[in-house]
Amino acid sequence: MTDATDDRLAAQYEAYPYPQRDPREEAKRLIVGSPSHLREVDWWVFGARRPRSRPLRALVAGGGTGDATIMLATQMARLGQPGTVTYLDRSTAALRVAQERAAARRLDNIVWEQRSLLDLPGSGLGPFDYIDCCGVLHHLPDPAEGLAALLSVLAPGGGLGLMVYAPHGRTGVYMVQDALRLLAPPDQTPAARLDVAKRVMRHLPESNWLRFNRSFADHITGGDAGLYDLLLNPRDRAFDVPALHALLTGAGLAVTALMEPMRYDPATYLPDPRLRGLIGELDPVARAALAESLTGNMSTHVAYCVRAAEQVAPADAMDPAAVPVAREMPAEELARALRPDGTLSFLFDGLRVPVALPPLTGAILRLIDGRRSVGDIAAALAGRGTDQAAFMRAWREVWTKLVGLNRILLAPPA
Q1: pLDDT per residue over 167-216, tens digit each?
Q2: Which of 155, 290, 305, 391 is least surrounded by Cβ atoms within 10 Å, i.e. has the fewest?
Q3: Rounded CA separation 266/288 (Å)
Q4: Among 66, 68, 64, 120, which Cα is nearest to 90's?
């Protein structure tokens, strides 16, 4: 699958390892996101059924400067999750940055591999319980072949977290890419192309669609690497929801969730009863495609998926033994963010969506700490006068909406 375009892609990531990161910042912050947040993997891939004591063998295929690798390895260390994260990338420059970041955190649960993900079949690596492939498939000449390479090392019962570009939220990007191919042809050196791109951006006409797009900021805040990757990448394909679904089903995969699930429900944006009736007649893929077309601001799609033949029912959040856990922001902070009218406001790439929640929401959220079970929370509220039936009605609604927002999940068994 190597061709002249692939050689240019390799040269790009040597010259401008992506994303642009400074290892000294590891002392200040941990960069988190989707896919591959450990709590997300526990829930969206394994349905909160895989014990935390069971070693997790993870692969980050196309690890770049290390965001997913550092995040997952750090979270595994903090939560006492045994196992290893294997970083794989062919860029020497990116590997060096990722290793410096890991050293700054004193992480010892990372295995380093410098090679292409296309070399995975027959490599002797794996099998892996979880595979992250974020921002890679859309740069390959044949994304299906890249996906097949990943599946060749996926363990039975394992799953993947994928990110690919989406077209509508990248409005303006491909127009500027076309312009830059004329002014800075791909056969020029990366440095020469970047110089031209910077000059164009300083004089970009006010009417250019990229000026209106606030769904991403790589060209503004991502440094030279961000600008190059967004506007000068020699191979860049975007997938709308149906195209992504076709790619994944063609590989025998089933999607367990698109992030965040509520974003992909068009009823989130269309309260009209007649419209909601029409939405209800659509299949799940068409519903998600409708949400993508309506919002117009999805610049990427993040999907968790498993082999279609290996789907399992996730743990039941209504089970008294289930343990709810906040993904990242503590549930107490979510409770404090509740408005007087009982809504929580969420921002989806500039699109603000109010989510109505029942009156008991604040009391429930203040008791979610990752240790108390649903039964424990019910008992605590019963001591304050809330009967079991009222609690369960409220909890069902709180769970349904906040898991759809990827804010409250279930913890795996110990």
Answers
A1: 999 999 999 999 999 999 999 999 999 999 999 999 999 999 999 999 99
A2: 155
A3: 7
A4: 64
Mean pLDDT of 75-84: 97
With contact defined as beta carbons under 8 Å apart, do 301 and 135 qualify? no
- The rounded distance, in Å, linking the Cα atoms of 307 and 299 is 26
For tokens 């955190």, the residue is: 105
Cis peptide preceding 186, ω within 30 of 0 = no
Residue 2, pLDDT > 80, answer: no
CA distances from 356 to 343, 394, 408 (A): 4, 12, 15
pLDDT at 307: 98
Strands of 120-228 (E only): list them: 128-134, 154-165
CA atoms within 13 A on the CB side of 90: 15
Per-residue tokens: 348: 């989806």
Q: Where in the chain is the domain with CATH 3.40.50.150?
A: 4-168+236-310
Which CATH superfamily hosts domain 4-168+236-310? Vaccinia Virus protein VP39 (3.40.50.150)
Alpha helices for 271-339 (secondary structure H): 273-279, 284-295, 331-337
Query: Could you tell me which residues come within 8 angstroms of residue 67 by beta carbon, excluding any fewer than 6 positions away?
Result: 19, 21, 31, 33, 134
* pLDDT given at position 3: 81
Rounded distance, CA 361 to CA 355, Å? Answer: 12
